[in-house]
């Protein structure tokens, strides 16, 4: 007589093992994928080394300036008003380099506005004299406490360097050149990318 032995399958245990195996596999996959996905974003070290920085500008009010950091330097983003732009030509005779012939800006930055879009002025907030950071003095005339002829601009109280609202240096300042304009482009109407040239530039 032959005995036929059939395996007894515990369906509950089988399902539990399948679920447990799937869970362990998913966790392992996430553990591998997470560092890979995070590697797409610039690390703090990469940011310090000069990775581009995105700056939202949609909440920036006319006349308001914000400061962000790129490569360890303060970068200003000033939303200039029409009045601020209109006064720029009046400062030309008082400036060291009104045409910006010294290459302190990327080649695609042209004109006295020194900007891709005149309304938004992007500039390194570092004085070209000894590396101090000037202060925005946007009021015009006596209201500025800079004298009745002040056309608005930037003032470095450390050594008395003065710049207009395009960061062009005034004659008589210890700073030898205009302030630098960093490479930048517009990701959209609401976001500027600091540290990255426009495509095709």
TrEMBL record:
- InterPro entries with a match to the protein in the record: Rieske_2Fe-2S, Rieske_2Fe-2S_sf, Rieske_Fe-S_prot, Rieske_Fe-S_prot_C, Ubiquinol_cyt_c_Rdtase_Fe-S-su
Entry-linked CDD domains: Rieske_cytochrome_bc1
TM ranges:
16-41
Chain ranges of the Rieske domain: 114-193
- The source's superkingdom equals Bacteria
Please give the cofactor(s) recorded in the UniProt entry for this protein: [2Fe-2S] cluster
Q: Does the keyword Disulfide bond apply?
A: yes
**Cofactor: binding details:** Binds 1 [2Fe-2S] cluster per subunit.
Give me the reactions it catalyses. a quinol + 2 Fe(III)-[cytochrome c](out) = a quinone + 2 Fe(II)-[cytochrome c](out) + 2 H(+)(out)
Give EC number(s), comma-separated: 7.1.1.8
* Cited Pfam families: Rieske (PF00355)
| Annotated compartments | Membrane
Arranged from A to Z, the UniProt key words for this protein are:
2Fe-2S, Disulfide bond, Electron transport, Iron, Iron-sulfur, Membrane, Metal-binding, Transmembrane, Transmembrane helix, Transport
Any single GO molecular-function term of the entry would be:
2 iron, 2 sulfur cluster binding
State a GO cellular component annotated for this protein. Answer: membrane
Q: How does it sit in the membrane?
A: Single-pass membrane protein
Note the subunit structure.
Answer: The main subunits of complex b-c1 are: cytochrome b, cytochrome c1 and the Rieske protein.
Anything else known: The Rieske protein is a high potential 2Fe-2S protein.
Question: What is this protein called in UniProt?
Answer: Ubiquinol-cytochrome c reductase iron-sulfur subunit
Provide the taxonomic classification. Bacteria, Pseudomonadati, Pseudomonadota, Betaproteobacteria, Nitrosomonadales
